[in-house]
Amino acid sequence: MFDKNNPIFISSISLFISFIISLAILYLAKPTWIQVIDENSGKPVIYWPSTIAYSVTFAFVCAISVLLLVTSYNKPTDKPFSYDVPINLTSSDIALSYCGNKHT
């Protein structure tokens, strides 16, 4: 079902899952750094922009660490990513391309 050899896909899944989990933990724990005092009631309430910002930051850290872990386990390919370009020029053709005069 999941392509375990694709590091970007696995990192994206971990980004989504860690965002949801951290958002739920911050909502349930209600730490003081995500709360503000409501002016009308005087009670502390959750400040959602701060909660989402902390969750996104934590999710990005998790996704980058998962990406680094998954890419370190991938084996390098046998063939490097390059093209073999044959050059069939003689030395006089190369000299002619630089100066425009035929050398003999």
Helical content stands at: 55-70%
Unreliable sequence segments: none
Oligomer: single chain
User: How many distinct beta strands?
Assistant: 2
Topology:
Elements lengths: L6 H23 L5 E3 L6 E3 L1 H26 L17 H9 L5
Antiparallel strand pairs: 1-2
Helix pairs in contact: 1-2
Write a short abstract of this structure.
It contains three helices and two strands; from the N terminus they run H-E-E-H-H. It is mainly alpha-helical and 104 residues long. It has a domain at 7-77.
Question: Could you explain the architecture of this structure?
Answer:
The protein is mainly alpha-helical and 104 residues long. The chain has a domain at 7-77. Helices cover 56% and strands 6% of the residues. The protein has three helices and two strands. It has helices at 7-29, 48-73, 91-99, and strands at 35-37, 44-46. A two-stranded antiparallel sheet has the order 1-2. Helix 1 packs antiparallel against helix 2 (48-73). It starts with 6 loop residues before the first helix and ends in a 5-residue tail after the last helix. The model has no long low-confidence stretch (mean pLDDT 83).
